[in-house]
Amino acid sequence: MNIKILIALHKPYWVVHDEAYMPIQAGKKLNKDIGFKGDDTGENISDKNRNYCELTAIYWAWKNLEADYIGLVHYRRYFTKKSLLKNKKNSVLKIKDWVNLLNQYDIVLPKKRNYYIETNYSHYAHAHYGKDLDKTREVIKQLFPEYEKSFEKVMNKRTAHMFNMFVMKKDKYDRYCQWLFTILFALESQIDISGYNKTEARVFGYISELLLDVWLNNQKLSYKEINVTFMEKQNWLKKGFIFLKRKFYDRGYKVE
User: Fold this and answer.
1) CA angle centred on 180, ends 102 and 247, rounded to 5°
2) What are phi and psi of 148, to 5 degrees?
3) What is the DSSP letter of 157?
4) Centroid of chain to Cα 171
5) Cβ atoms of 200 and 194 closer than 8 Å
6) Hey, CA dihedral for 117, 53, 172, 80, is it positive or negative?
7) Is the pLDDT assigned to residue 251 strictly greater than 90?
8) Dihedral angle of Cα 110, 37, 176, 78, to the nearest 10 degrees
9) What's the mean pLDDT in 149-172?
10) Is 102 exposed, middle or buried (0-12, 13-18, 19+ CB in 10 A)?
């Protein structure tokens, strides 16, 4: 079983050494070489990284990578075993874990994030620009009308599979990417982001996180949710303050 899980990086960082993983520098065309294979070879959208985030690596794999299964994690976020180990690195899933999982399920996803007091739509609108999600709805209605109900369902939920993290069989990965990038490229031509700050300019990366569940809602796939571990310490007090600030006062404040 040939499994290739991209580890998206934009700066030098620790990466797990295991045959299932492939470190890749996302947005390499726009930045200095950090010593990893880049998303700037073959057919690519590496130069869109400031707006598409890790999606430039996902696109590169779609167009250029041969494997039975393809997925993505982040340099600071990995799928991990539930563990009380102080060394988080030792909890990262390895090739044997992945073979076992993918022999049972069509797709592996992160455990859902629960927003409790907000829907996915209201949370996005408080953090970013709701009008961009409204335009996304219009694009889906025009290009993939069979997904319109799925879009509304996901927008009204209070949970979502975030981070653009997943692992799935290549044929399903191809179908998903074809659908996703058709929508995002159309959306890109219809919204003006010239006045967006650096954070909000990442709009297509943000929107894609919600579109994964829209696509999944219309697929008959079995999936397994797996724990995701953030590899650094987190300041929960600071995160809570930023969340409240951008909810009640302004948007554009990034919460990792």
Assistant:
1) 100
2) -60, -45
3) -
4) 19
5) no
6) negative
7) no
8) 0
9) 98
10) buried
For the chain, the residue count is: 256
Task: Please give the average per-residue pLDDT across 68-93, as a whole number.
Answer: 90
- pLDDT > 90: percent of the chain: 88
- Angle, helices 130-143 vs 170-188, to 10°: value is 120
CA-based nearest residue to 79, from 234, 226, 213, 212: 226
- Hey, what are 61's tokens? 């794999």
Calculate mean pLDDT across residues 42-52.
98
Domains of the chain listed by start with CATH number: 3-248 (3.90.550)
Phi, psi of 52 (to 5 degrees): -110, -10
CA–CA distance, 251 with 256 (Å, rounded to integer): 14
Is residue 178 within 8 A of residue 104, CB to CB? The reply is: no
Residue 32 and residue 23: Cα distance in Å, rounded?
16
83 pLDDT tier (thresholds 50, 70, 90): low
List, for residues 126-150, the tens digit of each pLDDT value.
Answer: 999 999 999 999 999 999 999 999 9
174: closest CA among 182, 184, 162, 163? Answer: 182
Task: Take residue 133 and report the two structure tokens written for it.
Answer: 């999600």
Residue 152 CB contacts under 8 Å (≥ 6 apart), including other chains: 137
Q: Which residues pair with 112 in a beta bridge?
A: none
CA separation for the pair 131, 140 (Å, rounded): 14
The one-letter amino acid at 51: N
